[in-house]
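Narrative progress, year one. The postdoctoral researcher (J.K.) led the effort to move from monomer predictions toward full complexes, under supervision of the PI. The following entry was the first complex the group processed end to end, covering 574 residues in total.
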Amino acid sequence: MSEASPEARAAQGAAEIVQFDNVGLRYGTDREVLSDVSFTLFPGSFYFLTGASGAGKTSLLKLLYLAQRPSRGAIRMFGTDAITTPRDKLPLLRRRLGVVFQDFRLVPHLSAYDNVALPLRVAGVSERELAGPVTDMLEWVGLADRMAARPATLSGGEQQRVAIARAVIGRPDLLVADEPTGNVDPDMAVKLLRLFEALNRLGTTVVVATHDVHLLRKVPESLIMRLDKGRLADPTGALRYPPRRPVFGGGVE
Amino acid sequence: MSEPRGLRLPEVFARHLGGHLGGKGEQADIVPQSRLSGPIPWVIAIMVALMVIAAGGGLALRNTGRAAAAELSGGITVQIIEARADERDRQARAALAALARTPGVSEAHIVPQAELDALVEPWLGDGAVGASGDPGAGAVPVPALIDARLAGKLSAQRLAELQAALRGAAPGARVDAQSTWLSPVFGAIASLQWLSLALIVFLSLATAAAVLLAARTALGNNRATIEIVHLLGGTDAQIARIFQRSIARDAIGGALAGTGAALVVILLLGRSFAALQAGIVTGGTLRVADWALLPVIPVAAVVLATLTARWTVIRALKGML
């Protein structure tokens, strides 16, 4: 990947999904868990976020899915300054995100069906409109016969699939997944990866945090974001200034 | 990878959901309703019952005061204080005649001796006053009384004029406004009315405080779920609606139960007081307008509880990103 010129970057600016500029994050008065993190995500890109335990992957993802404000730096999402955006406007940004949490965070008293339907209900989709997609999605992740089951009665792998179905059901612009294949067998891991790729082909930018090096090879066109002690390794500047690349449906950004 | 049940992956997305939709959303079951309000229906039932009883009492006291004031308005009592019975009777008749000639006196009559005897009997005993008022051996001379009613408003100046007019005909006559006797009672009634109003205000505050605590507890219990809804794009208003709807439902149930219980109590108390057959008390029965006013309290309690829940939740949510 070659570094783009400033003019090219300016031309690309309008299309960016996410832009981090010298972002730092610390909890309380502790040392920074993320330091000087800068990168740009474009529509249709597929990223793997890797790094050792404690490198700051989950903290970075929290910033990406707007669960945390940074201590310093600038974050733009979908053309909006995510740091200064008023609280009442944040839900509109969040509805453009899909998140797979490492601990799934399924609502315990809701069935698998209702958990998957939750983002659509929050967005105001009617029951009649959401019934088809939710059923299809659960069928696709192999849980057609477990739709009425509550999370406590599902295995870890099944819970993970419900969490993924919930994250992708709204066809988000940006999908953020924290170790999404950690609790599933290799076949299901590949299958879920295909789901992410399909979303990616439809224009969704995907960021997958994983320890699984085998997974990285399954998506040849993916970019690697490697975190080391809270700093993003970007020796060529490709993450900060990514090259123009074709997107799904033809054309160049 | 094989696609299950012949469903090709992109179809899942392509067939539905073109983009992001906005709207109020359907959150009926996002947070379990049973975990929201706890004992709130009972608290509201008790508070509403107490408020309705206090309001009913306040309205009854107001009616009592008004009835007594109307009864005594323009009423005067002329006492003929004279120890000799024949002179007392003469002065009483002369005073009655003088009153009949006085403009503005609409009605006047001498209180019959039998009524006077009955009035003093509980204090002085049977036979303390002779049937004719004749102070025999051991009999007590009781003043003769004339009950009169004036047209128009009674003032201190009018009382003084009457006193002067009667002085010639009945030197032993003393004129008193009937309302003057009961002014301490009116004062007490007014105080009790204020007390019932204060009770309603304090009970309303207590209800709001109970709802506030319940909403905070429910928020704490459901914090994880609320965070998820937030991260999925749920707005503060959506989450607040879940809580206020639950609290409103509980408040309606509690208010209905409390109002029902209070109405039974008011009816029973009303019946007990009516059985006393004491003029001032029976004047305090609730009128149709009062009965129509009482349901305002449960409605106001439901609105108060709902708004308190909304305010509490919105305020608490401001602390989350």
